[in-house]
Amino acid sequence: xxxxLAGLYRDFDRHHLLPLWTQREDxxxxxxxxxAVPHLWRWSELxxxxxxxxxxxxxxxxxxxxxxxIANPGLPGLPYATSTLWAAxxxxxxxxxxxxxxxxxxxxxxxxxxxxxxxxxxxxxxxMRRGDLLLTPGWAWHGHHNTLDAPMAWLDGLDIPLASQLxxxxxxxxxxxxxxxSTPRHSRGERLWGHPGLVPVxxxxxxxxxxxxxxxxxxxxxxxxxxxxAQLELEAEGHDGTLEHGHAAVRFTHPGTGGDALPTLRTxxxxxxxxxxxxxxxxxxxxxWQVFDGSGTISLDGRVRQxxxxxxFAVPPWCTVAIAAHDTLDLFRFSDAPVFERxxxxxxETVEMTEAEATDVVEAFDAAxxxxxxxxxxxxxxxxxxx
Length: 387
Ligand SMILES: [Fe+2]
Fold this sequence. Notes:
This protein is of the alpha+beta class. Helix content is about 20%, strand content about 30%. It has helices at about 5-15, 25, 45-55, 160-165, 190-195, 220-235, 335-340, 355-360, 365-375; strands spanning about 40, 65-70, 85-90, 95-105, 105-110, 115-120, 125-130, 135, 140-145, 150-160, 170-175, 220, 245-250, 265-270, 280-285, 285-295, 295-300, 305-310, 310-315, 320-325, 330-335, 350.
């Protein structure tokens, strides 16, 4: 480099300037280059760790929640599942209370197992039971209390990384106790909004239905299960309705608008018939999946692992995903798709993949990779099929 040019770069630096031409490839790559990596966390390892936290770490004001986030190995030091999504196992011991607070971030709970906890959202007590999706829209007050002598754990999903990137975060403490200790089977939000195809005429134009988040506080498993079952039954009768052959899917929506239940997070439930393998696809935006029931394999960028009930996996942008069901496989999925769609960044495509590439588990590869990634052999992703 001649001295005049070197001087120019020195002066750029001195004035806090950076030229595009030296870094175009990093700023504008030909396809997404996420730092987050595909990764699997096993429930059989996650849950005992949450239990140990339950025994050792009190829940209360300050820390607020006993929530253990999955931390993507590609984002070291950050409690993020992907660059936009937070996912955590929250554990509430017998009779414990998680105090009231509110924050800008949108949140939901998805219940893998258990019952007995009510989450009180803006004063409305919402029962939490297996298979239910419960919403905590941004800036809604919320606390949880466990009414039983048994602990309960569930999946929390939030847009924390996105809100952080956007510097859009506000947080306020509420009362140390939940505001309503009643334990109704159905919340007021469900009683008003939870009827198929029916919205209350009396709802004012500036009421909760006008907000970007759904006013329906809970989506109950009996409805989700019935909708998935009906899709597969219709398919068996020769009618349309499934996403693809043997693959039923429903999306949790805002009953007033038909859009996503939360403005930044898409939430869906998928059911695969035994023996079905999904079409391999990739898309912009990222997602987190949790196996709700059944077992099968997941292929993430061609690396195949066995999964069963409770297992969680993170899918970064443009990672090719194929899922195969051994028995009937139910999966909960959440993603940042509403953000990508609204900003015009949504893009997806199918990927050619052989059946073997989609479903052949390579255990030795998995174990070696896990050791390399973590320096130990006993960590979350170490075993690809030898459970
Ligand atoms: Fe919260």
